[in-house]
Structure to design on (188 residues):
């Protein structure tokens, strides 16, 4: 689980720092960085288990990336020593691979947010607090239940605390009382 948390925090931080620290040689390369890094961040924004670290980090990382993109656009400059032709081709190819791959993944992810043809509206059995849906939606990228036919549209509901986390600690733990939803009354 710690590796998962490192990915959710580490990858966005690395991409934001790269965007902040790398000097873009022109608008084309700046746009390639924005699109490739942005498509990765959008995928993480939509599919990561943010309730483990804090759902508010999604917003923090999104705003940080936008501000960093604006700042890096202002700092574009032609390099003193232009990169080799092979380095340029490799950089462009790598960016296009990331843009293509994560655009497809994002399309499948966001397609999962659209409801099926026949929808049943239900009232929430939970009151008093903030709840989020985990593993819900019409995409295997959003819903771990998707490939189990009776559970295709099943969902897990979590209660989050004021810090936007599901438990008292980042990784939760074996003590059920540490989880916000444990022992909460259901209303039928």
């Amino acid at each position: 689980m710690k590796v998962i948390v490192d990915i959710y925090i580490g990858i966005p931080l690395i991409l934001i720092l790269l965007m902040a620290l790398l000097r873009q040689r022109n608008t084309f390369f700046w746009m390639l960085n924005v699109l490739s890094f942005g498509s990765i961040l959008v995928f993480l924004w939509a599919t990561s288990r943010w309730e483990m670290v804090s759902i508010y980090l999604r917003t923090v990382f999104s705003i940080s990336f936008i501000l960093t993109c604006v700042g890096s656009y202002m700092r574009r400059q032609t390099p003193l020593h232009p990169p080799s032709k092979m380095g340029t081709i490799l950089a462009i190819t790598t960016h296009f691979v990331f843009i293509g791959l994560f655009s497809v993944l994002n399309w499948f992810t966001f397609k999962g947010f659209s409801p099926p043809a026949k929808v049943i509206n239900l009232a929430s059995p939970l009151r008093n607090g903030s709840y989020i849906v985990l593993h819900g939606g019409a995409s295997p990228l959003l819903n771990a239940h998707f490939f189990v036919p009776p559970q295709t549209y099943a969902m897990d509901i979590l209660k989050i605390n004021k810090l936007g986390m599901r438990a008292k600690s980042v990784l939760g733990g074996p003590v059920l009382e540490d989880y916000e939803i444990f022992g909460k009354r259901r209303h039928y």
About this structure: The mean pLDDT is 87. The chain has two domains: 2-111, 116-188. Strands lie at 130-134, 156-160. Residues 2-111 form one domain.
